[in-house]
Each structure stands twice: as C-alpha cells, then as structure tokens.
From TrEMBL:
GO terms for biological process: ceramide metabolic process. It comes from the Eukaryota. It holds the Pfam family DAGK_cat. It comes from Biomphalaria pfeifferi. The lineage of its organism: Eukaryota, Metazoa, Spiralia, Lophotrochozoa, Mollusca. SMART domains: DAGKc (SM00046). This is Ceramide kinase-like isoform X2. Residues 116-270 form the DAGKc domain. InterPro entries: ATP-NAD_kinase_N, Diacylglycerol_kinase_cat_dom, Lipid_Phosphate_FormReg, NAD/diacylglycerol_kinase_sf. One of its GO terms (molecular function) is ceramide kinase activity. One of its GO terms (cellular component) is membrane.
Amino acid sequence: MESKSENISQTNKETVNQNLEETVIFTEAVKIKGKENILTVGLAGLKVFQKSKEASAITFKWPDVLCIQPPQKCSETVLQYIHHKANNTLLIKTLQIQEISEQCVHLINQQIAASGRPKKLFVVINPFGGAGKGLQIYHEEAEPLFKVAGIETTVIVTERSKHATQIGESTDFSHYDGIVVVGGDGLYQELLHGLTLQEQKKSGINYDNPDTDLVKLNVPPIGIIPAGTGNGTTKYYNAGGFGAKTSVLNIIRGEQHRASVFGVYCNNKLFSISHLFVAYGMCGDLMKWAEELRWMKKWRYYYVILGQFLSGKRYFEAEVQYRPFVAGSGGGVSSSLSDWINLEPAVQHCYSIYAFPYEFVDTENKKYLDPFGQCCQLVVSSGCSQLSTVKSMVAVSKTSSPGNMEVVNNVKEFKVRLQRENATNPRTEREAKNMELEKLIIIDGELLSLDSKEFSVRLQTSFVPVFGTASDA
C-alpha cells in the first residue's frame, strides 16, 4: 500500500511535469498557408494555432521535432517533424511556416539540441545478412536522416562471422551517445554477447555461473535498424512499429528503455546471450532443414514448415523445472529466487519448448509482450498441433493456449534436462538424424549445438539500454 507521503510526492511530480509542459518561453505571430497563426516555443515543445482557436492547436514535443530549415530561395521556413501512426510506425511530415523570425528559429534549434537526442553514434553494419542490403539500407534510409538531425557517426562494416562480438568485447563506447546495428537479430545478438563479456570481465563477475545475476550493461543505448532475414526484436522494441525508417526515427528521438535478456548456460558455461527467444525441439528441426536449403532463399521457410507438417512431429523426453518471479515488498523486485518447481508430469513427452525474454501483459485493452518487463513466459508443446505452436510463437500475444500446450507465466528462470540415450552407434539412418537434431537449440534465430544434455535459461532483467518506445496498455 502506498503511503500518504508517496501519494503527495507523486502528485507534486505530476504538477511539476504539467507546469513544465505549459511553460512558454517565446511567442510570435506567423503565417501558415497564408493564414495568421500563433507559434509558441515552450519547454516541452512547439504549439501552433490560429488566433482564438488555441483549443485546436497542433502540438509538437521536442523529441518529435526533426529540424527547422531556414528559408533558402523562398520565403517559407520548413519544419520537419515525426508523425506517430496508430500502429506506432513513424513518418516524416513537414510544416511550411511564413514570416517566422530568426530569433524564433534560433530558439527552436536550441530546444532541439537540448531534447536528449544522441549527437554521436557508433554504427555496425552487416553487409551480408538477409538479402545483403545492409549498406544500401543504411545509406538510403539512415544516413540522410542522421545528417538532417545533426548526428555524427562512426561506421564499421563487419567482415566475418562473430566480428560484431569482437567489436562489442574490445571497443570503448564511452565517447558515444548510442550504438546502432544495421542487420538482423543475429548481428545484435553477436554485439550483445561481446558487450556482456566486456562488462562482466571489467566487474570481475563469474559470468559462467548460472546462479549469478550478471552486471547490467553500462553502455550507450543500442538501436537496431532492420536489414536481416529475421528482424523480430526491433518490432518489440518499437512497440509494434516496423521498418527501417521507424527504427531510425526512434533512435533520433532518443527515448530509452532497459530491455531484459536471457543468459543461456550449458555445461557450466555462459553459452549465449539471447534478446529474442530460446527454442528447443521443433524449431531446431525446422532451422536445420532450412539451412540445407539456402539456395531457395526466403522460400525455404515456407517449404520446411509445410514439409514438417506433412512428416509429423519428433517427440523427445525432458525434465522441465522453473523458478517464478517473486515481487518484493511494496511491489519492488526481489533479488531472491523461489525454489525450483517441476513441470508435471516429471518427464515431459513433448516436441517443442520455447520462451521469449519478455513479460506477457494481459490488460482489458490488449495483450502484448513487454521487452522491458520483469519476467517471461515458458511454453511446452506436447499434444497440440504444430500449426498451433507456430501460431503461438508468431502471434504469442494474440493466441490463446491450445490444448496440450503448457504455458507458464511469471517465470524468472528455467532448466531443461533431456532424457536422451547415450547411444554412439545408431542402428538406423533415422536414429542418426534424431541424435543430431537432439543437440540443436535455436537462439535468436541462430542454430547452435549443445554439448550437454542439460541447459538452463536465466532472465537478466533491465539488462541493456535500448532506443525504442514502450507499449501503451
């Protein structure tokens, strides 16, 4: 229960914020489309309205004001601003203003500079991922907007696999206001793994201990410009808004949040960092098959999903345990963990296990996955159809739990112990194939091989600062 002093403090904070939003530092008469208007420059943003019609004013908060360009060959000054669509996609729009003074333009530029926008970015581009358009997307979509916003950039193009991990582990980012990756989920995962290693080594943390909370990253916020085969994370970080331009504009806006990630452990080592999802079973089977059909490009995914449905499920036995998230007193986050809970029955006969490092939020208005939450959702599929499992992964916030799919919410940590045979001499070709598939795990869309029959996954909350926007409940 909130105390009286906490209520007063919150009320005072809201009053201060309201006063800041209403504070006007400059006002002048201008013309828009030949009609007389009033333009006010405030601490929170700009406001434009016709005389005696302030109730219908157009308001631009400072993070959404891209730039103001003084008149060149015409008498109009162009204000470029960021427009938010209902689905959180961002666009650029312009407003032509006539008879605006140099003093007003100067004040607007001062407020833009003080709005928290990044001024210097470190950019990592994968030129090979997806359709190989990383450089093209950066030069056509991002670079021009960064220049308009007055942002300096240092650009590094990756040359080999795991190059981004080396960059993340060895680079000093303290002189930058942000880090930008131009690529897919794999490039972000590589960079994130390198940044994690650098931070833990610097702090003297035994990062291979699965019972240890990793030290949260003390780095500039990271922005992702989608240019890969899989670009799922950027959509979650941008509250459903998608596309390169939306990502670039959210970076320019400078809004920051701290996202949660998974630490994945195997054989008493930090196996990987995951920012999107961890999956075992069916997803590994699909990805292995897709890797063998790369010549089909994006069509291979449709082919392998259809082929998987026709060929049937590959079941496996596993013990699954989890620890639920425990809230501290007063709604705070407790650093302690509850005891392990066995998912019943003790040995699961299933074909798919997966989890996102995001909190499942169910409100009266909508359901969604929050990448900035405090717990995650664990899903174990046993008797339901493969189509239901695929649907639950693609639209997890929209699909209810089908039969024979165990969905556990409010999870902080889980581990899987596989009950596979230690056979070294498979008797049939099918047995040999199954033995190979049983070693595979999918992390953020990348196919990796386990070297143990047991792996554990621990949620590291508020771990990495990112550019983005929070979803409105």
